[in-house]
Amino acid sequence: MFTTNPFGELSAVISTEVMQGYVIVMILLVVGGTLFDVMHKKSAKYFFQAKAEAEANGIRKVGSGEKMSIAVQTAVVDVMTSGEFCNPKRRVAHLLGMYGFVINLLMTIVLVFGYNTPGEAAPQAVVALWYIGALMVCVGGYWFWFFIRVDVNSEGHPPFRLVRADLFIVSLLASMTFGLIWAFLQATSGGAATWIFLLLYLIATTVLFAGVPWSKFSHMFFKPAAAFEKRVGKANGSAQNLPTLTRDDPEQQKRHSMTLLQDAPMNMGLGIKRETPNHY
Fold first, then answer.
1. In this predicted structure, what is the pLDDT of residue 269?
2. What pTM was estimated for this model as a whole?
3. What is the distance between the alpha carbons of residues 92 and 81, in angstroms, rounded to a whole number?
């Protein structure tokens, strides 16, 4: 199975133009959905407003060289290694899902636009990466869904409880799962079941890319910018108008909304982190 190009086999029945057109439409849906999300939620307006306030409240100016260094740190720590996750299991699951999705998406584009005729030999590495990417998403996604999710692990909700916020992860897992099953059946002459899972694969994939305004899909574009501005705010001293990590400075003490914490030691209350909150 890992050596069979599923899109090359499919092109014997569905023209390459149709497959390529579908991929282009999905890309346009992501672009359009992200722009709609930005305008509807006014996230860009809020982002630039917060950016201007942070620059005005900064106690020092961050130069272009320092900003370049911060950009590199953001790319390496916050984007490439998901450094914002304190829970190591959650971090690994996120990395598996993120890199698996990117690999599968890129290999899909390569296979659909480059090796899309029956019998045309696609590079084995490209074909294998398509399957590996989908499997990575499934491993990371199902691990997160059944064992790591806060509302399941810590709050005791059943794992099959669905809310709108789950649209992204559910459609992503469905797309990768149905895609793998379809590719396996196609490689092993699965008959009518092949077409059923192809249809399910297309439906789940369409929901994934068309549901951008109602899912967390677009957060992958916003989070790097937010992480960068957070680091810049820390560097210029504005700290996004939030209390810094020291309470020795009287001015910082006054900024706390809770009087109790103004004179409290920094390690106050950290006992809650000694064990996982799963006492449901």
1. 58
2. 0.82
3. 9
